[in-house]
Structures are given as structure tokens and as C-alpha cells.
Design a protein that fits this description.
By secondary structure, this protein is mainly alpha-helical. It has two domains: 108 residues; 31 residues. It contains five helices and two strands; from the N terminus they run βααβααα. Strands 1-2 form a two-stranded antiparallel ribbon. Helix 1 crosses helix 4.
């Protein structure tokens, strides 16, 4: 992905206000930069299978502003989605996958931040639910293989 630093990650045209609102004082993500919120939204979108195509693109984050771990997460999602490591040769495709998951995830993230209860409790609860589902799947696979 030699041109990843020159590409820009885009968001949906209505999403910019959500990102702005999530960074406001008093919100759980106050003070967090856009690239971190984007990755959080992408991760939540990925977890919820909420990949939404962008009808129009609002340029948002320059690729050069992402650090190596952030780029690695984006690449990992693209490889998983495409089931082929060769996707890494197409930076635009990698970024499109990330953008679409972030577009689906930003509204879920907004809902998590705006609903009652603490954000961290909701996130931990969601992660525990995911762990239980994974454990159940592993046990089922083990019982089938016996």
C-alpha cells in the first residue's frame, strides 16, 4: 500500500456532525481525535456487520495522519473481509472497506454514547457478550469434532 499516506479516508456527508458532537465536552469521547473515533466506529461497524456504502464522500482523514497500529487494524479488517491478503495491493479498496464499516458504525457509536448508563459499561457488556458467543461456538465445534 505505497500510496496509503496520500489517500484520504472519507465519511458520509451527514457523519461529520456526529464526529463533532462525539468530541464535545461531557461526551465519553471528548478530546479524542477524529482518527481514533473513525477506528472505533469502523470496529463497531465491523463487529455489528454494519457495512454501509457511502452514497457520497466527504474527505475526512489524510492517510498520513494514521499511525502504524491504526493502519494495521484497517488492513486486518480488509483482509478478513476479502479473505485474501492480496487486497493490500489495492489501497483504495482497503480504505473503502474501512470507510463503509465506519459509516455503519458511527451511528451505533453515537447511540451508545447518547443512551443511559456509562459508555464504558455498555462497551464492556458488549465485549463480554461477544466472548460468550465465541466460547459457545468453540464448544459446539469441539463437540462436533468428537
Amino acid at each position: 500500500m505505497k500510496d496509503e499516506d496520500t489517500l484520504r479516508l472519507a465519511i458520509g456527508p451527514g457523519d461529520r456532525n456526529i464526529y463533532k458532537d462525539l468530541r464535545e465536552t461531557g461526551m465519553p469521547l471528548a478530546g479524542m481525535d477524529n482518527s481514533r473515533i473513525f477506528l472505533l466506529a469502523m470496529s463497531i461497524g465491523f463487529r455489528h456487520h454494519a457495512r454501509l456504502e457511502l452514497k457520497s464522500r466527504d474527505q475526512f482523514i489524510q492517510g498520513s495522519y494514521l499511525d502504524a497500529p491504526q493502519k494495521s487494524i484497517i488492513k486486518a479488517v480488509a483482509i478478513f473481509e476479502e479473505k485474501d491478503i492480496k487486497v493490500l495491493f489495492d489501497s483504495k479498496k482497503v480504505y473503502t472497506i474501512a470507510e463503509e464499516y465506519a459509516h455503519g458504525g458511527i451511528k451505533i457509536l453515537e447511540e451508545l454514547c447518547n443512551s443511559r448508563g456509562t459508555f464504558s459499561k455498555k462497551l464492556v457488556s458488549e465485549l463480554l457478550e461477544e466472548i460468550k458467543e465465541n466460547e459457545k461456538e468453540i464448544l459446539e465445534e469441539e463437540s462436533i469434532s468428537m
